[in-house]
Amino acid sequence: MTLVADLRAVLGDEDVLEEPVELHLFSKDASLLRGRPACVVFPEDSAEVAEVVKIAETHRVPVVARGAGTGLTAGASPTEGGIVVVTTALNDIDIDPANRTAWVGAGVINLDLSRVAAPHGLYFAPDPSSQSACTIGGNVANNSGGPHCLSEGSTTSHVLGMEVVLAGGQIVVLGGPAPDPPGLDLKGIIVGSEGTLGIVTRALVRLLPIDPDVRTLLMDFPSIEDAARTVSEVIAAGLVPAALELMDQRMCQAVENWLQAGLPVDAAAVLLAEVVGETEGVESQAQIIAETAKRNHAIDVEVAKSEEHRALLWKGRKSAFGAIAQLAPDYYLHDAVVPRTRLVETMKGVYEIADRYGLTMLNVFHAGDGNLHPLIAFDASDPVTYATVHRAGEEIVALCLQAGGALSGEHGVGVEKRDMMRSSFTELDLDAQARLKEVFDPANVFNPSKILPEGSRCFDFGGIKRELPDGVWV
Amino acid sequence: MGVTYHPRHISWLETEIPDAPEHGLAIAPRTLNDVSAALRYAAERRLVVQVRGGGTHSGYGDPPPPDLVMSMERLAGVERWEPDDLTIVVGPGARVETVEAMLAERNQSLVMPERPGDSTVGGVVASGVSSLRRGRLYATRERVLEVTMITGDGRMVRSGGRVVKNVTGYDLHRLAVGAFGALGVIVSVCLKLWPTPPGAATVLLDDVERASLITRPLAVLETDSKVMVFLQGTESEVEAQTDRLGGRASDGLDWPEDPWGEWQWSLRVPSALTPEAVRRIPEHWAYLAVHGVGEVRSASGSLDGAPEVRAWAESVGGHLVKTKGPATDFDPWGALPPLLDLQRRLVAEFDPIRILNPGRLPGGL
Question: Does B162 contact A at CB distance below 8 Å?
Answer without folding.
Answer: yes
